Amino acid sequence: MSTIVVFSHLRWDFVFQRPQHLLSRLAQHYPVLFVEEPVYDDGAPFMERSSPAPNVTVCRAHTPIQAVGFHDEQLRVLQPMVAQLAPPGDEVVAWFYTPMALPLLQSLRPALVVYDCMDELASFKNPPKQLLQRESALLSIADLVFAGGPSLYEAKRHRHPNVHCFSSSVDVVHFQQALDRTRAHPQHDAVPRPRLGFYGVLDERFDPDLAGAVADAHPEWQVVLAGPVVKIDPERLPRRPNIHYLGQQPYSALPDLLAGWDVCLMPFAINEATRFISPTKVLEYMAAQLPIVSTPIADVANPYGHVVAIAETPDEFVAACEAALAHTPEQRRHMVDAMQAVVAATSWDNTAARMRELIDTAPPHTDRRATPRSLDAADDPAAAALRRSKVNPLRAHEPHVGTVVIGGGPTGLSAAYHLGGDTLLLDRNESVGGWCRSIEDNGFTFDYAGHIMFSNDPYVLKMYEVLLGDNVHWQNREAWVYSKGVYTRYPFQGALYGLPPKVVTECIMGAIEARYESAEGKTTAAQAVDDCCADGTTDVCNTDRAVKGEVRNFEQFIYKVWGKGIAKHFAMPYNRKIWTVPLSEMETSWLGGRVPLPNLEEIIQGALEPSPKPLGPNARFGYPLKGGFQALMNGFLPHIKGKIELSADVVQVLPREHIVALRDGRRFRYDDLISTMPLPELIKAIGNEAPEEVRAAAKGLRHVSIRCVNIGIDRVATDKHWIYYPEDTIFHRIFVQGNASPGCNPPGGFGFTCEMSYSPYKPLPVDGEALIARAIEDCRKVGMIRDGDTILAANQVDMPYAYVLYDHARARNVETCKAWLKQFDITLVGRYSEWEYYNSDHALLAGKRGADIVHAKRARAQKASSE
Question: Among the residues of 613-691, which ranges form H helices?
Fold first, then answer.
């Protein structure tokens, strides 16, 4: 016998909708165990059971854990409870309404997995961060996928081979009770007519402004709203004398409500949360034979536009309501005929029967179907191993690919771009780009920290052209430093004009001392070091002359290059701020092999008169005109011949077996592996297969993290592109996104990003909303935000790996890891995998280099086989 075990984000006693309709009918054929999200209880964990319908048992876990939903913290408590749900000997059909419960599948050993996708939960307000990843995993494991409407079906049908569209249906007999218009709901007693009504959840899908507009257009109309208020502030709901909130209603009372209404409303907002919805109520309204007015929801307008009045604007919505109230008998007769034809073609009974047929005829999955459950799952060694494993081993199939590329940032994308169709790119995020991704907030586009396009390499410049076409904005750089209350051009040492005289004097005298203290050695032309990350750290070594010399650390380097004055007023405080560690702990190989000498002519000239606009090859940079830096990353996608898997989190690498395993349980066998993931994370994924000295070396690699607070205001705050702050602001740089491209700003808006570094050696002083408040406060202090400015957007993004730290042990640790990995067909490319100071153009070339290594290896193998 089969038992259906359901995992739902909705409670059974919430609004009666799709899950209750289907499962109460399927319960005529299978026992149904309906597992709800746990509730907090400070006592010992236990499972509360109730039976709201025949053969349906609602299981509600009580746990002492305050995390909401099927949170990771709940899993260790829930797994043993779930393991005991189904009777011993029963086969289990695992049925998911939320992918967040997927880890609990390990406790069940199901014979069949069903995903009834009734909503695109990732589009709802405040979705769990793991939701998309777990849905991808669920789609890879499920035997059957049911989509709750045509839009959802189109979204899922290419992601699974066995997707079936089961749109919302209707219990016609129940709702035809409303045809007896003498039925009365007690809450209608004080509400005159005409009544225009809506029932359902009042959440982010509901348009409160539209409801208010309807009430305002006709004060004599009575707008009746029945349903619970969820995930939105009740203060957002319109308050009018002719708007009546009745609260959540039992399913049995809905015909009584409908009997007293004149028009049924569907005032849904048009947003991401409503893009895929298939409202159950539209057919229930039709069964009651009442005129319906709706906003243009796709799954309403497309199948039912001939019956339902579709209105896009508030004025159109009001006009449609006016027309509905003025129906002639002839119009009403045509409407009723059309509605009867629609509802006659569907029922929940038929939908449940078709689902049951698919469940009963689904072929067994030999890699997952288990023998009947034993009385004590703890006695099963396989179950115990399953619980211990961090990889879900439900999938044993290991597809073979020529090359696996880990990481979809610029390096990984470039590698895949330069490889052939037998390539699989895996990225843990929901979109490609790595730290070159962009986000949108209230019309603003923000990057994960500031990025620009700059290169002297013709191949990279050609790649920019291929990837972006004409979607690019080239302009002269406006980089500045804010210190001592004034702005000076970047680089600091060449633009001292405007600083307090004492500061200028100290800077010039310190540079003279440094120049002539170091001039005893033979001087040579200094080699320029590009600062195309624009983070202000490498320009310290850009001067006209250099000497051979030994410096023990970065701090000594700064004093030798610029002298005490420039070190005191810019180079030391700024670099301490961005690197977070004492600069004496850093070596200088990343800055070249010579010690640059101060350019005294440049320093003195820049102190006597304002510096001209920047010249030279790096004085001009590019940026996508539209779409933020994400547009450059997305530009790779049409050119990549291989496959890309997103929300694909690599948690295990088996180098000897040439296998990578994902958190969702999928495994891929490869010939070659190109890794762009952080080197410490790669060694961690290899685990104990790596020797102790390799694991110790990986743990010894240090890095700096970056937190960005993105802010949008209603005023153009500056004409600059980025500004360095060496003094006491929480941020070290502001990247002015709104000037990188005008396409990053909504009309009337202006966006910028405050970047702040942190590490275990210098944690962030505050976090969360307090961090945003602190960044805004410091922006006011330096004049980026003024009194009267309106904050239109404020959010934060985190980059746990941002800068690799060049401490004195770095070279030795990196070499230890690379030497061991080299024997396993693993190619390391990119900033974090090679643990090098790379810029975005270097990242593109690194990806190409990785592809060239794979091509060369295969060419050698082909040549050897032919000989």
Answer: 630-634, 679-686
d(CA 412, CA 831): 11
Give the separation between CA 866 and CA 847, rounded to whole angstroms. Answer: 29
Q: Give the DSSP H or E segment for 134.
A: helix 131-141
Within a 10 A sphere around the Cβ of 376, how many other Cβ atoms? 11
- What is the rounded CA–CA span in Å between residue 571 and residue 564? 10
- CA-to-CA distance for 827 and 834, rounded, in angstroms? 9
The pLDDT tens digits of the residues spanning 416-455 come to 999 999 999 999 998 999 999 999 999 999 999 889 998 8
d(CA 501, CA 860): 66
- Angstrom CA distances, 227 to 206, 224, 259, 294, 752, stand at 11, 10, 17, 17, 41
**592 Cβ partners below 8 Å, 6+ apart?**
527, 529, 541
């330096």: which residue's tokens?
Answer: 782
Pairing of strands 703-713, 791-804: antiparallel
- Cα-Cα-Cα-Cα dihedral sign, residues 771, 775, 780, 782: positive
**Under a CB-based contact definition with an 8 Å cutoff, are residues 403 and 825 in contact?**
no
Residue 764: DSSP 8-state: -
Over its C-alpha atoms, the chain yields an Rg (Å, rounded) of 32
* One-letter amino acid for residue 262 of the chain: D
Tell me: the pLDDT tens digits for 452-496? 998 888 999 999 999 999 999 899 999 999 999 999 998 898 899
Contacts of 520 (CB under 8 A, 6+ apart): none
- The residues, ordered by sequence, that sit 6+ positions from 576 with a Cβ below 8 Å of its Cβ are 582, 583
The answer to whether the CB of 529 falls within 8 A of the CB of 536 is: no
Phi, then psi, of 403 in degrees rounded to 5: -135, 130
Count of residues in the chain: 867
Q: Of the candidates 310, 348, 333, 323, which has an alpha carbon nearest to the alpha carbon of residue 263?
A: 323
User: 58 near 49, Cβ under 8 Å?
Assistant: yes
DSSP state of 691: -
Sign of CA dihedral 8, 12, 18, 21: positive
Q: What are the distances in angstroms from CA 209 to CA 17, 273, 314, 568? A: 26, 16, 9, 56
465-474, 577-586, 589-598, 828-837: lowest mean pLDDT where?
Answer: 589-598
Q: What is the DSSP letter of 206?
A: B
Q: Name 631's Cβ contacts closer than 8 Å, sequence gap at least 6.
A: 438, 468, 471, 624
